[in-house]
Each structure stands twice: as C-alpha cells, then as structure tokens.
Write a structure and sequence with these properties.
Blueprint lengths: L1 E2 L5 E2 L6 E3 L2 E3 L8 E4 L1 E2 L2 E2 L4 E3 L2 E3 L11 E5 L5 E3 L2 E3 L8 E3 L13 E3 L2 E5 L10 E3 L12 E3 L2 E5 L4 E6 L4 E3 L2 E3 L4 E6 L4 E3 L2 E3 L9 E3 L5 E3 L2 E3 L9 E4 L17 E3 L2 E3 L6 E5 L14 E3 L2 E4 L5 E2 L7 E3 L1 E5 L10 E2 L5 E3 L5 E3 L73 E5 L5 E3 L9 E4 L7 E4 L19 E6 L5 E10 L7 E4 L9 E4 L7 E10 L8 E7 L5 E8 L6 H11 L16 H10 L17 H10 L16 H14 L8
Parallel strand pairs: 1-4, 2-5, 3-8, 4-9, 5-10, 8-11, 9-12, 10-13, 11-14, 12-15, 13-16, 14-17, 15-18, 16-19, 17-20, 18-21, 19-22, 20-23, 21-24, 22-25, 23-26, 24-27, 25-28, 26-29, 27-30, 28-31, 29-32, 30-33, 31-34, 32-35, 33-36, 36-37
Antiparallel strand pairs: 6-7, 38-39, 40-50, 41-44, 42-43, 43-50, 44-49, 45-48, 45-50, 46-47, 46-49
Length: 672
C-alpha cells in the first residue's frame, strides 16, 4: 500500500503489527510524526513496525521539523524497513522516554533497517537515530540497535545519538556516512562489533564517547575521516555540567578494536579540551588489545587523565603522538586485505595468539575466541563466519527495489532571488576613527572564501569597544550597488576564537556607522550570522551605497558578506551561493584564487601537518607532503585547466615570488 499526501500512522495499544506500508513523496500536517507508537488507546507496547518504506516524505518547507518514526511505550520493535531521502530536521527514528519516570526502561528494538541518503543538515537535529534527550538522559532505557545499515547518512555529526543509559549498539554497518556513533548523554552503553567503513568520505568518523562505564569492543573502523578528531574519541567533560553539557568520561573500556587507515588519530584522549568549559580529562580508562595501523596523523592524540590502563595494543604507521609505554607495541601487524575488503592479520602477524585472554569471547565475524586470543577485532579462525559488513540485500523491506543515487552528495539548489556578495577583503577603504593606528587587516586563509578574510586588531583599545564612551576603533567601508529594488537581508560569514573575539559591529542602514552587535562563533570556525534588513528603493538601484563594518572585539575575522531577498536562508544554502561564485579549482589551488602558483605553496607550507581541508585539497582533513606533490604537478594551472608550461620555481626564488603574489592578493577581486 502506497501512502502519500498527508498520510500518517498511529500505533496505539498492544501486540500490534504494521507490515508492508510505503510512505512516498508525501508530508504531514499538524503533527510531529509520520509513524507514532501512541494514539487514542495510549502508548504502544509489544508492537511492531516492519517491512515498510518511508521515502522522500518531506515538507514543502524543509525547515519544518518532524520525525519519521517516534517510539513511545515499551517493548516495541522497528525492523526490516527502508528510510530513504529525509531532508527536513528531526531524527529519522527517535525513542521518547517517559518523562514522568514511571516507565524508564523502554526496551525497544531497532534492527535490520536500511537508512539511506540523508543529505547534510544545517543545524543540530538531523540525527538518524536518537534515544532519549537531555531531560531523560539519566533514565535506564535498555534499547537495542543492531544489524542496521547506514549509507550516506550526512545529516549531522551524530548519526546515532545515545541520550540515555544501558543502550546496546551492535553489528551495525556505517558506509560512506559523514558522522559518528555518539554516546552523547547517559552511561553504560555497549558499542560492539560494528563496521565503520568511511570509504574515504569527508566527515566520516567512528565512535564519540561522553559519560561513564561505556564498553567499546570488537569494532572495525577503516578509511574514515577525522570528524571528531579521532576514530574513537574520548570527550573532555565539564565540571558540574547541566544535562545538555558534556559529562566526564569515566571507567570506559576500549578493547579488541581494529582501526586502519584513518584520517586523524586512531584514539583521541581529550576531544574538545579547553572549549565550552570542557576541562575534565577522562579517567579510569582501559585501552587494551586494540590493533591500529594508520599513517595520516599521530596514532594517539591528547592528554590522558588519571587511572589509564594500557595493555597489549599494537600501533604501527605514524608516530604514536604520546610517550612510549608498556602496553603499546610498535610493530608491523602484517595486515592483508581479504576478498571481503577487510584488513585482517596474516598468518605470521604478531597479533595472532598474542594474549592469554580478552574482554570478549567472539570476534567481529562472530567466530569464537578460544585458546590464546588475537589482538584486534578479528580472531584467526576456521569457524563459520556469521557476521559481516551489511549490504542492501541483508536489511530493509525485501519487496522494495532500492537504487543508490548516481552521485553523492546531491547538488544543493541555489535559492531563487537577487543577491549581492562581497568578499570582506574587497573593501573600498579602511578608516581609523580613534586614531590609534590599529585597523582591519587582510589575512590569507586557505579555508576562507577567496582565500582571505579581514581581521580585527589584536592590540589597541580594550577588548570590548563601548561606543557610548569611545569612538569606533576601525571601520571597513564598502561601496555597493544593487541591480534590483527590494528588501535584502545581510548575512555575515565570520568567526571568533574565544569569548574575547566573538563579536563585531554591523550597521542598521547604508551610510551610517555600525552599532548593532552581531555575535560570532567562539571556536575558530567560520559561521554564517543573520544580520539586519536593508531596503533598496527603485531610485537606489545602480547607485553606490556605502556599507560599514566595525571592530568590537579583538581578532574577530570576517570572510564574506551576502545580501539576499530571502530572509530565512540556511547555512547550506548560503554556502551554495558562495560556492557558485568561486572560480573552478584546480588540484593544488590551496588559496582558492583559481590559479596554482607560488602563493599556494605558502598556504600549503603554513598549514603543513594541520587537520584542515584546503581548497583544491586531494587529501581532505589533513595537509601532508602528498599535497605538495599535487601542487608541484599542477603548478601553472588555472580554473580547473591543465597545468601550463611554466616551470616550478626553485626553492631559492620561491620566497621572492611568494612575496610578490602575496602583495597582489590585497587588490580587490570580485564584487558579484
């Protein structure tokens, strides 16, 4: 049965089974749920939603938030379904826990489903599965999530978000998905026997850990990016945190995992330390029997807290990143790529029969561990393999013929309507109202639009300008001309680095000094901020109008300003507009100016070893020696064209050429 239009389903009562539905190309109204395990007879129990499909069931306004499947009650099951192409915010499957606390143990089962093709979201709330929330995170939910396939799940960093206690995540497969399995709130989760196959996808990751008494064993993590600064990332905690904050990691066990060819650290020990009040290092953590082979970054990253136990780990490839110690054996594990595409220890590997016992009695294949145990997720065995990375034939509604998209990610449509974009570094002039000599300056940044931004002075006036008692410290002036009358909203792509650099002054109109405070990010990430509205009359069309931006706090950076007649654009839409104006990039064009030249060498050199993605970067998430080779091979190319016949400059002449190009970049490049 195909349901479209505004169809929805309520499952209310006990021992009910819904089988074989197909929700397609519809939406819902006056509700937050497509499928809801509650209704006129109360919350469901011992009921099932199975062998069904929800496909492209999205609202006309993609900012409307609702959930595809909402679990209430107890002992319900969601299994063998396909969930495809959800574009709106709201978890695909969410378990709501009883806020009265009377029924805390939900004991639901989410298994054998196929979650496919969720494009990137523009804010939090695009999880694929969420179990509980901040307010119920202390409840003992006991929810089982197993044997599910997640493909191209890019909604947000939390593909799975566990926000309750005693949940189990086992035997799931994550393929080409930009995100992580995140133990966000709550305690005592088990993450066992999952396959994280990044397949080189930017933004892919493994497991992010917050809270106490978690067990992470027998997982296979390969070819993932550096989404959470580590394939397994232990998060720094906040003292006396509120429910929505970061609890300290305590008493975690990380054992018998295999981590191969990852874009960042294999295990990060203090992710987020120093940001957002996170000052508590993880403590009493056991890291044992893990097999790690990777070359992209230090294998371990961060500072360990008290009570760490290291035992029988093999780590090989890149530098350790931490001091050598008993419990980490730096030796080649002699891995071989098997016909199933998985890296396994060869017959002569030092990982085989290396320890007398372990933390698990089976391996990731479901083969028993007997006698001496092997290090890593795989036990060398002739027993029958009962588990493997899942494919579309293993999960989902058997009657539905699923076809993967021809390309991924899908193109983002450019929002309709006139707009005006200005690179912040393309100012007409910079003024110094208080006369202290401190003004906006241009800074080169390969991660910025156009390869540059403007930066507020780091010295001079006090860190926070008070316009009631002092004049402006510095202003950046822009002469703008609009081709069409209308009301435009200003959007600012900007960033701060901490609480003393996260705001600027923006204007309320043209030709007036800026006095509106706009707050920026405080973590060093460029972020779109929505500013005020500006009306262009017919008589103003084509006329130069002066627009002014002011420094409020030190070191704040502004990348671009965008004016659009749509007042509710998302960050993704704004990025798409900006990207549509950028010149086509050649590999090696690390400052994004459309030409592979000596300036790109400078950008590469200044970012070497860092975990960033430069424009034209063939190794997203890291800047390596390989990127130099790409630059050298493409020197002279422009706009995606083949390299010209220009010779690569010798090191002796490179500094002079770099200086000359650097100076030329100060000239204005574009007003679109």
């Amino acid at each position: 049965m195909i349901l479209n239009g505004t169809s929805q389903l309520l499952i209310s009562g006990g021992h009910l089974v819904v089988d074989g539905l197909h929700f397609k190309n519809g939406t819902i109204v006056n509700s937050d749920h497509v499928v809801q395990f509650r209704g006129p007879l109360g919350e469901a129990h011992d009921s099932r939603f199975t062998n069904s499909v929800i496909e492209s069931y999205n609202p006309a306004d993609l900012t409307d938030k609702y959930h595809w499947v909402s679990l209430y009650g107890q002992n319900n099951r969601v299994d063998h379904n396909r969930f495809i192409d959800q574009k709106n915010p709201g978890p695909t499957v969410i378990a709501w826990l009883d806020e009265t606390g009377v029924i805390a143990e939900a004991r639901h089962q989410i298994d054998s489903n196929h979650f496919a093709d969720r494009p990137v979201g523009y804010e939090n709330g695009f999880e694929t599965i969420r179990l509980g929330d901040s307010d119920t995170s202390h409840y003992n939910a006991h929810i089982l999530v197993e044997n599910n396939l997640f493909e191209r799940q890019d909604g947000e960093i939390e593909i799975i978000s566990s926000k309750s206690n005693d949940n189990v995540f086992r035997y799931n497969t994550f393929r080409e998905s930009a995100g992580t399995l995140t133990l966000r709130h709550g305690h005592r989760a088990t993450v066992e026997g999952n396959f994280f196959l990044g397949e080189g996808r930017a933004g892919s990751g493994g497991v992010r850990v917050v809270g106490e008494d978690h067990v992470i064993v027998n997982n296979y993590i390969a070819d993932v990016d550096d989404e959470a600064d580590g394939a397994i990332s232990l998060t720094a905690g906040i003292p006396n945190t509120i429910p929505s904050g970061y609890q300290q990691v305590k008493n975690a066990t990380i054992a018998h995992n295999t981590i191969v060819n990852v874009g960042g650290a294999a295990i990060t020990l203090d992710w987020g330390l120093g940001s957002s009040g996170r000052s508590l290092l993880p403590q009493n953590v056991t890291i044992a029997r893990n097999l790690i082979q990777s070359t992209a970054a230090p294998l371990f990253e961060g500072a360990e807290g008290t009570g760490f136990t290291w035992a029988d780990n093999i780590a090989f490839g890149a530098a350790l990143g931490i001091s050598a110690r008993p419990g980490i054996n730096v030796v080649d594990p002699q891995l071989e790529l098997g016909p199933d595409g998985l890296w396994r220890p060869s017959a002569t590997s030092p990982a085989i029969d290396a320890v007398a016992s372990g933390f698990v009695t089976v391996d990731f294949d479901g083969q028993p561990r007997i006698g001496l145990f092997d290090i890593g997720a795989d036990e060398n065995s002739f027993a029958q393999i009962v588990r493997k990375p899942l494919t579309t034939v293993d999960v989902g509604a058997s009657w539905f013929n699923y076809s993967a998209p021809d390309s991924w990610p899908p193109p983002i449509p450019i929002p309709a309507g006139p707009f005006q974009v200005v690179e912040a570094e393309d100012f007409t002039s910079v003024t110094d109202p208080d006369g202290n000599g401190q003004v906006w300056t241009i800074v080169q940044n390969g991660a910025a639009s156009g390869g540059a931004a403007i930066k507020a002075p780091s010295t001079g006036s006090s860190s926070n300008i008070n316009l009631s008692t002092t004049p402006h410290d510095t202003l950046a002036l822009y002469d703008l001309a609009f081709s069409e009358a209308g009301t435009y909203t200003a959007y600012y792509l900007a960033r701060g680095f901490d609480g003393s650099s996260d705001s600027i002054f923006t204007p309320s109109g043209f030709g007036v000094d800026p006095a509106v405070v706009d707050n920026l990010s405080s973590n060093g990430a460029f972020r779109w901020e929505t500013g005020g509205q500006f009306t262009i009359s017919q008589s103003n069309v084509g006329m130069p109008l002066e627009f002014r931006l002011g420094r409020r706090e030190r070191n704040a950076e502004i990348d671009a300003i965008l004016f659009h007649q749509n007042s509710s654009l998302t960050a993704i839409q704004l990025d798409a507009i900006l990207a549509s104006l950028e010149p086509a990039l050649s590999d090696g064009d690390y400052n994004g100016d459309g030409v592979v030249d000596a300036a790109d060498y400078t950008t590469w050199r200044d970012n070497l070893g860092s975990s960033v993605t430069l424009p034209g970067d063939t190794t997203p998430g890291s800047v390596t020696q390989a990127d130099y080779d790409v630059w050298r091979n493409n020197f002279g190319a422009s706009g995606g064209a083949a390299p010209a016949s220009a010779a690569v400059p010798e090191p002796g002449g490179l500094a002079l050429l770099t200086l000359a190009v650097g100076v030329s970049l100060i000239a204005p490049r574009r007003n679109a």
